[in-house]
Structures are given as C-alpha cells and as structure tokens.
User: What shape does this take?
Amino acid sequence: MNKLLKYALIFIAFVILGVVSLVAFIPGVNVPWQQLTGTADTDDETVKRQLSAADGFGVTLFADDVPNARWLAITRNGDVLVSQPKRGQVSLLQADADQDGRTDGQRVLIDGLRRPHGLFLHEDWLYIAESDAVGRVPFDHSDGRLAGRYQRIVEGLDDSGNHWTKTIGLGPDGRVYLSSGSSCNVCEEENPRRATIMRFDLTGGEPEIFASGLRNSVGFDWSPVSGELYATDNGRDWLGDDFPPDELNRVQQGAFYGWPYANGNRVPDPDFGANADAEIQQKIAESVPPVHGFPAHNAPLGIHFLESPTQPAQYRDAALVALHGSWNRSEKDGYKVVSLHWNDSGDISQRDFLWGFLGDDRETVYGRPVAFAEDGNGNIYVSDDYAGAVYRVTPGRKGSGATVAANRPPIQAPPKPQPIDSGAAQRGEELYQRFDCARCHAEQAPLRNLTKKYTVQTLADYFDSPTPPMPKYDFSATQKRALAHYLISREHGIDNINPLN
Assistant: This one.
C-alpha cells in the first residue's frame, strides 16, 4: 500500500507540473522560472566538490546562468550556442579567450521562438528546431551575430501532448534529420509523424518518415567509423522501477522499433501488445530490438560520437550519452554521462564518464545532463537544464575539479616567417578564385593571423582535414602548398614575398 501511495503522489505531482508548464506558455501569464524546472544553483566550488570525470579528463564550470540549457552547437570561432526552449531563445556563450575557464560573455542571439530545442550550424546558416517547425537564419561566424532574417522552412509539426521537443542533425547524406517524440506515455498515435525520425532537404520541404516506433528519441548521431545512425530512446512509464529498459537503437531507413506494441527486446506491451491480434503480433515480431539497453527511467537524451584526435585513445570514436535521470522511480537513478565503446565484434560496453549530479543520499539532485558539443581542441561541452549550466570537460588531465589554466598545453611561440614562392602563390590565388573561397572567407569567416598559427607546410596539411563546415576538396600536395603560399602571402604583403628558385 505504501508503494502504491508513493506512485500516486508521484503521478499527482507530475500532473501538477504538466499543468504549470502548460500555463507558462499561455500569452500574458507569468510563471516563476523555479516552478518550471526546479533549480539547483551551482558554482565552481559545487562543481569541484560534486562532479567527477573519467581518468584522462577534467571538468570545470563554463557558464552558470543559462536557465533550461538544452542543445548545443559550436561556431567556427569557438563560441557555444545553447537553446533554451522554455525561454523561447537561443543564447551565445563567448569562447574562453582569456583562458580563465569560463565563458567571456553571454547574450541572447535570437528570441521570440516557440520552444526552440535542436540546433546545428551548416556553412553560413544556423538551423533551429522549434516545437512546431524548423527554421534557419544566416549566421556570421566572424562576430557571432545573425546576418539576416529567420525563416521557417518546415512548418505544421505537431507539438501537442508529451515529448514536444524536436531535435535536428545534419546527416552524412546532406539532409536534415528530425526526431519527434510521442504525444503520450503509451498510445496509438493519430499523427503518423509522432514517435519517428524524419528527414528533409536543407532548404526545407515536406519531411519523409525515415524510421518509426521510436517513443522519444531526443538524441541521435552518426558513428564516424561505420557511418550508421544511432539514437537514444526513452521507454514508457508506470511499469515498475526496472522495466522497460531505455534504449540505444541503430536506426535504419524504413525500420520499425516496436513502440507502442513492444518494449525492449520485443517484449509485448501489457496495454497494446499482450493478447493483440495477428497483425500487431507480426509487427512485434518484425520490430528491430535495441543494440544496447540502459536501466529503466534513466532517460537517455543527447548522444555524441567523439571525433577529436586529442581525445585519449580509448575514447576516440566512443559515444557519450547523457542520462538525464529518473522521475518515475521509487529511488532516483541516472543523472550522469556515460561513454559507450564498440569492440571489433560490434559489442557495446558502457562506462561512467561524468557523474555526481545525484547526491550520495540518492535524493539530492545537483544537475541533469542533456546534450554535448565538441570543439576542434577536444573540449567537450555538456548542458544541464536543471542547474542552468554548461560544463566543459577537457582531455589530457586526470581526475576532476582542476582549473583549466593549470592543465592547458604550454603556449607555443608563433612560427617563424617563411619565404613565399611567388609562383606558387599565384597558382594558389587561382585555386582560391576557382573554388569561390571568398564567398565564405571575405566577410563571414575572414582569414586573419594565419602566420601566427601556421607555417606553409602546416597550413597545407590542414586542408587534408579542415574544420567543418569547410568542405574537403581533396587537393593534391602541390595544390595544397600553392594555396598555403597564397594565403600566407596576403598577410606578408606582396612587397615582402621572396621568390624561391
């Protein structure tokens, strides 16, 4: 009886929270922020005392005034964009240029949106997934400001009921992928777009359903090794503390992943799968089971495959998953970041990566991790919508709580000026014009201070693996050096170019 009473109280609290959240979005009604999410104010001391990272990494507090921080993206300049759905805005956290471990400043980039969640940058565009639409706006990477008007390119997405967040990502096929969770805990959806992953063109248009039966796949990403799409999925509630498992699915086009008829590895759902007719039983039999299970109610959200070569060897190509934490459970569980590792046979093992968001008493909550972004130096940014914070996890260090500056690589002296081959520079200029490089680099991403960072050879090597969104052109060795000579010659000035014979 006590257990039933506890579940009843949890249910009543959840209903009240849902009503408060709904009221918060009625125009003219002001609901205090604390009533929407709860708060767990954090600071450097709390992070140092409470959070721990896996060996080889250290964690620090990058920003602590970002209420409802959800999805993240990183600009070419290293600024961090963060969506704040319940504030209707996307904010920009300036890169840590002064190297004190914290953002150098924060400002609202765009507001007035309908619960913006997923976002990504592609070329000179910022794409944003609102709860009922997807839009894009020109973005100037050089100064971190919008360069034009925001325009919706997909509209009419259903955001009624539960799981209204929309997540987007750019696939290796050059199309935009969009997840839309279910409208309920468990039901047969009337709208076929709910509980799916869809995709559409970069310029918009009618989304096509890519995969279905995915109750709430908030996070997804592509393996840099296999190119396959993996998505987290939250299992249904009210079947006890330990069932059903939350899921990691390898998502394939046209596949059905079980919900609402099956949970976990094709276990018939007691409401919609057990004693079902032959058609439903066939759907269950043909559904695709998860490739990895998380404990029930851990709520896996963001997933990110690590790509930077600066990551420790055992973490390269591993995936990080944010376990947001349970509410529908008699004892809290989750509230951490885990890493997933694939062996040569394709088997997946799981390790704790960042933990301490849940206190030792299993009741006190210090934060709830949501999503990730990784910069070119291997810094991993982690959002927390409960504490309203963004953390930075940095490779190359043991333990947690150390300051960023204490473990930063030593500052290297700028490379010595190198003689420039005027003939090569001229051929490089022809390449620069042929590929219309000025389209991006004249204004949106001007090339400055190259001589402080590169020699001719290191700049030529950079073209083998440029930082996205710059495309890889597969230049020959001669072409790479010619382009490097040209770009560096522009900073020297034509009068200082030394012909090489």
